[in-house]
What we know:
The complex is a heterodimer of chains A (659) and B (306).
Chain A: H1 2-29, E1 45-49, H2 65-74, E2 79-81, E3 88-90, E4 93-98, E5 104-109, H3 123-134, H4 152-156, E6 160-163, H5 213-218, E7 225-226, H6 230-239, H7 241-247, E8 251-254, E9 262-266, E10 269-273, H8 281-284, H9 295-301, E11 317-323, E12 327-332, E13 346-350, H10 355-363, E14 369-370, H11 380-383, E15 389-390, E16 396-402, H12 412-420, H13 424-431, E17 434-436, H14 459-468, E18 474-475, E19 481-482, E20 492-496, H15 499-516, E21 521-525, H16 527-535, E22 541-548, H17 555-558, H18 574-584, H19 589-606, E23 609-615, E24 619-620, E25 625-626, E26 642-643
Helix pairs in contact in A: 6-7, 12-14, 18-19
Chain B: H1 2-29, H2 43-52, H3 59-71, H4 86-121, H5 126-140, H6 143-157, H7 175-201, H8 204-211, H9 216-228, H10 230-244, H11 248-253, H12 259-269, H13 272-300
Amino acid sequence: MASVYLKQLITGVAISSLIFATISCKVLATNEEFFGKTTPPARNLLRYVNGPEPESLDPAVSSGQSEAHIYMALYEGLVEYHPKSLNAIPAIAERWDINNDSSEFVFHLRRNARWSNGEPIDAHDFVYSIRRALLPEVASRTAALAYYIKYAQAFNEKSVFVRDAGSNQFLLDSDFASRSASLSEPISQKSLKANEREYQPTTAQPEPHPDTAFHQLMHSPGRLVLPADEKKRNKLLAGNAKLGTAVAGKEFVKVTGEDIGVEAVDNYTVRISLSQPAPYFVDLMAHQLFRLVPRKTIEKYGAAWTAPANIVTCGAFKVKWWKPNNELVVERDPMYWDVANVQLEEIRFYTSSDHPTSMNLYRVGEADALLNHSVPNPWLDVIRPKKDYMDAAEAVITYILMNTTQPPMNDLRVRRAFNMAIDKVTYSKAKRTTTPLSAFTPQGIFVGYPQPKGEPFDPDQARRLLGAAGFPVTQNADGSFACESFPAAGLTLIYPTHSSNRALSEFMQAQWKQNLGITISLSNMESKTYYAARNNLEYKGFALGIWGADYMDPTSFLNIFLTPGDSGSGWWDQKYVDLLEEANHTLDRQKRYELLAKAEKYMLDAQPIIPIETPSVNWVKKPYVKGMYPNPASLYPWKFVYIERDSSKWDYKTPSLAD
Amino acid sequence: MLRFILRRLLITIPTILVVITITWALVRLAPGNFYTGEKKLPAAIEQNIREKYGLDKPWREQYLRMMSHIMVLDFGTSLSYPGQPVNAIIGRALPVSATIGLLAYLLALAVGIVAGSVAALKQNSKWDYASMTLAMLGISIPNFVLGPILVLVFSLMLYWLPPSRWEGFPSWNVVLPVITLSGIYMAYIARLTRAGMLEVLNSDYIRTARAKGLSESQVVIRHALRGGLLPVVSYTGPALAFLLTGTVVVERIFALPGLGHYFLQAASNRDEPLIIGIVAFVAIILLLMNLLVDITYAYLDPRIRY
Lengths: 659, 306
């Protein structure tokens, strides 16, 4: 009997060692410098794992990053993102003029831009696209990004103007204004005196732009805007006697798309008037919301216009085929105005939400680049030293919100204590792909921005603060701390389901336990449940927050606290809003940054949040993929991307973002 | 028999309606909406979205409108994939799931029945031990472990097979997901076959068949297998329904655009029409498969009459 088993054992060992030897040979044969195969594809194509399935091919619909990648291939706007800095570069607009206080912009279009069906693109297409993006029936989730445009918010919110039927005059906002009088009106709202120059003359534009009746209208004082909904309007009017009397007997006129501050001055000139100065508005115009959509196709096919058989696009690439939930393949569009400079023939956007699955495709050489954050944390030891690992700061912050409307977190001292009890430097070292953060804007993203510093890690001070708030911390015989009186039982830290969020939350829990002697329970929530609880302040204690920039300006973060009830913390302060407003009325860039920093410091001092980290982009791309940079928003203008077959010109480290 | 089938088919309709209503209520009770996200939407934008999708109407009206559409088999348009009808999504995803599922089913049946029969016929031999050990392993290793191990060995180390993605059928891409998916079913079927066969092989009618002088292969194939497979049939009916309609885990590991993947996405996206469409569809398939099992029973066991 024993000999039979021995025989089987020997056979088993022999077979397994044979298999093992084969496997090891294959593993040793792979390139150690990089993760997996580095053979460029035979054709000039890029296979990019783009994360989840895109919602839609309509650029006005979705706010997601995966969709943004696709929209950037299919659609172009007035401007495009710079591949490294993300600042606006010319696209369909070949140049633009900015008025003296950044409240009005004139874009000059190139004459040779065409749709994928060969039809020419002109200024009216842009007027249509922006009006459509704001149309209430389109129900765009990102429409608020266009609210800077005059009357855009009123149009999107279905509001009404108030007109006196007799005199045909509209009631003016300034007569009932709530905005602080100290701020000067933007130039775009002031009436133009005949001899005053709104724009500085340049060599490209020595003459003033043609004036039009619409332009004059835009430059007249802002009209009063009221909600169209009768209930809401009556409530508002009842609360303001002056307004109520003035409105009585007047007629209400619906705000339409024709009222908003977008104008085709001629076939190749677009003028955009804002209701406030916004120096970053040109950069924002590269956002998908402002990209060009085909009027004729949309009017012909309605909701089905994005079907591959119907779709007409204007970007460097056009739809070749779409297999939903599998791949979207786009090919170089011969109609594109700059097609001579587009090197990729084809981009394949693969759908995969599973990070290890994406990494496997990358390793075997079936994918050339992956979505940011694709490298799972446990893989970092292997991947990070490789030369195709992309490591650069991202315009994203991770932070913890505190529900400031309920005790004990309504006490500033308690909130400060919980912030100071967390050693963010140690956390970042442990996580390896982040830099510690003490402010509310990401670390090292906005060049020249005097980012304020929040309070440092100081457990002694944290314990003193808790004591001062009425929750004395005592030290046990074994050196650990305890805080018996603190009502920790009712408090939780909620976070959306994700393994990295779990690790983060457990670290925070351990820090509070170690430094304050307080145990906060953790609650892992399904993401929609979590968002609902957080946004409606239906949590007690703490909630994890992650925020990525919509555009490259500190206000993309600071505006989270602009509207009461939006931040998920319950904190809102008129003084903070005033500071932001003042900053946005400041023309000098550096002075504006200083004012924004002052606002940020003011908010940090109130401590509705605990800043944690600025993540790294954390993805991989093959060394032969060139022109694709790990920029802070992980957005890649595809026309600059190419496949390099000469291995001496490959990227042998994270490409630099400096010019 | 025909009356039985008709009666069963008629019962299916109210069952499906109850399933749809419960699903609808559960989606409504879950916190958050399809548009809930990291950033809280301005009230006016939320209002625009609610009006666009008719969510501002009273819930009775919404329910009745949905039901009246479903009565003509129109499950509406997906909320998280605007412009895509639910019927079209199911129609596209089903062939993927069904291909993988059917192949896995056939593989599981072929391997499971052969291994189980051999084990039963050669009870307590090394064949029996070997196949039952493998079956035990198959039951114990969940597919989310088996899948990555197969990928690791056959894709990442040996570079023999693609690690994921759907390239249509036939292609090498189906091999790993089919094996992963069939593993546990194969093991169950082997064990069920062995148990069923052992019981039947000791029964009187087999002794009669042998006494009649039938050859061993005739005894096994015509008599023993027929009786021995009854437990397998009752297991594989619902199993086939689940295999055909997609599995969340395998489709995710291998990035397959099947129904299971959509089902998971729809639930986490709160995509009400899509969830209801998929649930109703899976329920219909499941009920049909159960009916098919009952019919097969009647065929395999002459004693069963409806």
